[in-house]
Each structure stands twice: as structure tokens, then as C-alpha cells.
Amino acid sequence: MDLSNKCYLVTGAAIDSDIGLAICQKLDACGARLILVGRREQTLIDTAATLNGQHVIAPFDLTKLDDIAPWAKNLVSEYGAIDGLVHSASFQGYSPLRGICATQIHQYFDVNFSAAVLLTAAFSKAKHFNADASFVFIGSAAGQRGLKARTLYAASKAALASMVQSAALELASKHIRVNCVAPAIVSGAKAELQFATLGEQQSQLLKNAHPLGLSTPLDVANSVYFLLSDLSRNTTGITLAVDGGFLAG
Ligand SMILES: NC(=O)c1ccc[n+]([C@@H]2O[C@H](COP(=O)([O-])OP(=O)(O)OC[C@H]3O[C@@H](n4cnc5c(N)ncnc54)[C@H](OP(=O)(O)O)[C@@H]3O)[C@@H](O)[C@H]2O)c1
Hints:
By secondary structure, the protein is of the alpha/beta class. It is 43% helix and 17% strand. It contains 8 helices and 7 strands. It has a 7-stranded parallel β-sheet, sandwiched between helices. The protein is globular and about 50 Å long. 43% of the residues are buried. The mean pLDDT is 97. NADP nicotinamide-adenine-dinucleotide phosphate binds next to helix 1 and helix 6.
């Protein structure tokens, strides 16, 4: 399905992101115009250099929660209303309970949950979105299953999936759809880092928990595309697992 004449904001769009980059490349290939968001401007410029279309570079730190609404307003007045957004930026890692502190809770929740809520609130304001807009959040299978040492990451993604359900109900009258894509382990730099941390035996167990094998960034991008496009025009409030069967086990 062609997405030309559509404009999407994509957070976590850096060249060295695994999934954000794949999402940008997929949407660009479908003709969409993108607003690329992340903290490091050069990594967004580098992403844009891999794309065919003319896109907007919009460096912004999403932990500046109070600035999200005015920033969104400025973007809309400069580039027009959006057809949707993809929030892929996140804070990831392990947080064993013995070392947890309040700062860590903020690190995970500010980007993964609070920024998601405030982006939803900001871009669902009148004149900020076009007809039949679609908002997609990248969650995680970790949000739907207990995982050792991942309390904060998992809880932030569970909160995100819950937010998506309530926001979907609230925004249905504006014809804005709100959905989540939940990958398990995705092949790429983050997965390699995780395997290096876990060691060979634990890594093999984790890989075996994905009966179809690890997803690729493109698998995730294809599901994002589905949820942004009219192919999913009657779908809202769901969390779509892209997890190689991880949650089925
Ligand atoms: N990789 C996996 O195996 C996996 C599995 C399940 C779910 N997920 C989810 O999928 C999404 C993408 O994962 P990924 O591994 O591709 O992510 P990633 O490589 O860690 O990318 C995260 C991006 O978020 C941006 N970011 C982080 N903090 C930010 C902030 N405060 N403001 C603005 N941007 C910020 C970073 O760019 P800057 O540093 O330039 O800001 C970075 O480009 C995430 O939501 C993640 O939780 C990933």
C-alpha cells in the first residue's frame, strides 16, 4: 500500500538503532515523508542519507517531558499535521532488584512510557493530525511476561501496552487508531550485546525460546507498516506480538 502524501513522526530513528532504522527504510520505500527524531542530530542525518525521500531531521530529547507539547506544536506549524507516529525510542537494559534506585525508574519510564503518553496527548490535539491517523508504539514481549532482572524495562512496556488500550478508546471518536508492536529478541546489535552479557549457555536457552527463530528488524517494520496503513483500518488498542512464538511458550 502506497504511503505517499502521508507524513509520520518516527522516534528512535538513529542510523545505529536496529529497529528504528528499519522502520524508516520501510516507510520511505512506501513513499512516506518522515520526521526523524532522536537526541543525536548526526545519526538522524546519517539515517536520512540511506533514504530516497526528503525527510525532516528533528533532534529532541524525549526525557524533556514538559517540552513535548510545545515542540509538537512547533513541528506541526512548520511541517503540517501528521498522519501518525511511531515511538521506537527507548531506554533498555537490565535492572536487578538489588541495585534499583529511583533514578533508574525515571530512566526507563520517562522514555518508554511517559514520553509515549505525552506524544499521544500532543499529537491528538485538533489540527495536529490528519484524518484516519494511526499511532504505533514499539513495546516488548517483556511487557507481557516476567523476566529476571528486567523489572523496570518490562514494567515500562506493560504500562505502554495498557496506555495503548485506554488511548485507543479515548481517541476512537477522532478516528485515531492506537496500537503497539511487541517484539521479543530482534537480531542486531542489541541482541548481540544481550548474548554477550548472558554467556553461551543462557543465550542458547533464550534463542530456543523463539521457536520460529529471532525476528529481524524488517519483521518489526512490516508490522508497523501494517498498523499505520489502511490495511489495519479497523484495528485499534491491540498489542501485536512479533516474537517468533516466544509468548506462545
Ligand atoms: N532490539 C531488540 O531486541 C528489542 C526487543 C524488543 C523490543 N524492542 C524495542 O524496540 C524499540 C527499538 O529498539 P532498538 O533496539 O532498535 O533501539 P535502540 O537501538 O536502542 O534505539 C533507541 C533509539 O532511541 C533513541 N533515544 C533513546 N533515548 C532517547 C531520548 N531520551 N530522546 C530521544 N531519543 C532517544 C536513541 O537515539 P539517541 O541516542 O540519538 O537519542 C536510539 O536511536 C525500542 O522501543 C525497544 O524497547 C527492541
